[in-house]
Amino acid sequence: MTTTGRIYDDYSVLTPIHDGIDIMDRVMPLIGEELELYRERTPKSFALYERAQKHMIKGVPCTWQADWLLPYTFYADHAKGNRLWDVDGNEYIDFHFGDTPSIFGHSPDNAVTRGIADQILNRGVTSLAPTEDSIFISEMLAERVGLPYWYVTLSASDSNRMAINLARSVTGRSKLLMFNTAYHGTVDDTLKWMPRPGQVEYRWAHFRPGEDAAAVTKIAEFNDLEGVENALKDRDVAVLLTEPFLTDGGFTMPQEGWHKALRELCTRYGTLLLIDETHTQTSGPGGLTRLWGLDPDIWVSGKSIGAGLPVGVMGLKEELARKWQGLLDGFAPWGICGLTGQGTTNSANMLCLRALRLSLEHNYTDKTFAKMFASMDHLARGMRGVIEKHNAPFRIDTAGARLNVSFMPDVAYDALSAAKGVGFGGYREYWLYYCLNRGLLLIPIVNMILTGPDTTIDDCDKLVKAWDEVITNMYGR
Fold this sequence. Notes:
By secondary structure, this protein is of the alpha/beta class. The chain has helices at 23-41, 43-52, 111-123, 132-145, 156-171, 225-232, 258-269, 287-292, 318-331, 350-362, 366-390, 415-421, 427-436, 457-475; strands at 76-80, 83-86, 91-94, 149-153, 175-179, 192-196, 199-202, 217-220, 237-242, 272-276, 298-301, 312-316, 395-399, 402-406, 440-441, 448-450. The strands form 4 sheets. A 7-stranded mixed beta sheet has the order 4-12-11-10-9-5-8, with helices on both faces. The protein has a 4-stranded mixed beta sheet with strand order 1-2-3-15. It has a 3-stranded antiparallel beta sheet with strand order 13-14-16, with helices on both faces. Helix 7 links the parallel strand 9 (237-242) and strand 10. It is globular. Residues 1-8 have low confidence and may be disordered.
């Protein structure tokens, strides 16, 4: 394991230093120029931002919308296909798609959109009763992912909360194990990290003052099997949560044999294994669980799976589902199944079930993903060609229709290397602002880029051209 534990002791370790690129004297002035251009292009957004200060913290209704690294957030007017327009009339080619939910396109004129509209207009939105759609959904997910039993929730965060509660109930254990810097949504027990070896903290010190962050959460480093076994051997961990590879803060890739070893360790110590494919669902109809032959006890996803609507899913193995069923049967005579914390009165509503079914039928197909992969392959080839042209110490990694830009040359197998590749402190900011001002919308939080079925080769070439210009400018050539 290569991570030193210094990840957040000194933020300067996260800024790449490369010969020929002067961050302070070259890149920072370039960033200043882009910010000034952004202000010139977005006067109406600025006016809305000032107006919003009276009633919304940081001028936004959701904190994620304040993470554009900008003096103020631009305000969207409308979106269609793989295009988005802001209130100032600026048009953007969307490589962001709301950070995945809308990857199959904004308001596409197809069976999915028409079916959702028909549900709203003619068939109802919610009823606190299941529909036949839920059976189709369970059957399709079982075939694609390989787990037989399914719940539908309002988000991937919701699914993770449900999974943790269920795992604790079934195993009789209180703790969970996650990987350092991993992100599993708004679940309190996962909003933590390990800035130094063995020291579990909330990501924000003021988040839960007075509480012991390590009371129910253990953290290990990704690819550190010894650390995982040390966390599991006390047999107090109900569930281990992981993505196929970590996607928050750059790509942290698994070493050979990693997932097989995780499965064996979880089985040995009686811990349930949860695979979170909220991001990696962009790798195909069954995600990387299907492609890589993973063997989770619990599988969760959200974001794009419901065609952009707030929908999440949770799948369970047969044995686990039977144990959970037994617990519910014990409560059923008293009619308090809903008090187990597994969902809300608006979960699995009629509208979301219809959207999920239609998305699985029409979006999550090999034909649709083939279009997305073709444009992504073209984009990745072009961006790698630019790196070779400049002999730049950067790299491009892809997983299906998801691409990661790293401002470091090597594959990241630990959290520190992945985070450094994000390019905090100049690289990331200049790349983001330059693209934004030229009508190219990227995911701002990390350097991920998405291609949808509407993304064209010409769209990709425009992004490759901007990539070439950014590297040229950073080197001052």
